[in-house]
Amino acid sequence: MAIKSIIRDGEDVFVCVEGRMNHVVIEDIIYVEHNSRTVFLYTVKGVIYIPYISLNRIYDVLGTDYLFQCHKSYLVNRIYIERIDRTENCIMLKDYLGTVAIGRKYKTELLRKMHYLP
Prior knowledge:
Elements lengths: L3 E6 L2 E6 L2 E6 L3 E7 L2 E6 L2 E6 L3 H8 L4 E5 L2 E4 L3 E5 L4 E4 L5 E3 L2 H10 L5
Antiparallel strand pairs: 1-2, 2-3, 4-5, 4-8, 5-6, 7-8, 9-10, 10-11
């Protein structure tokens, strides 16, 4: 079992996995993906893997000031959202960083947070 921890201190995020400490500024997180019992933090500097941790735990630690849950497996940083495609149910990320799916369960709340709905 990998020893891991994730701590947020203001704008700084510290991720410790198996004795390696990674420092990330919260604004540098593009999106977070949970897949196969591993969380992947996609940042402007690369990807950080955190095994055996839930997406809810990451969301609780990182907070809601930057990250929005848009799917059961994804959190997206609001500052990297270029546009929301409501017909394809996906988020287009800025600077051609890709797309992130929007789940039916999360669509209304995401659109409200992004001020697309009253």
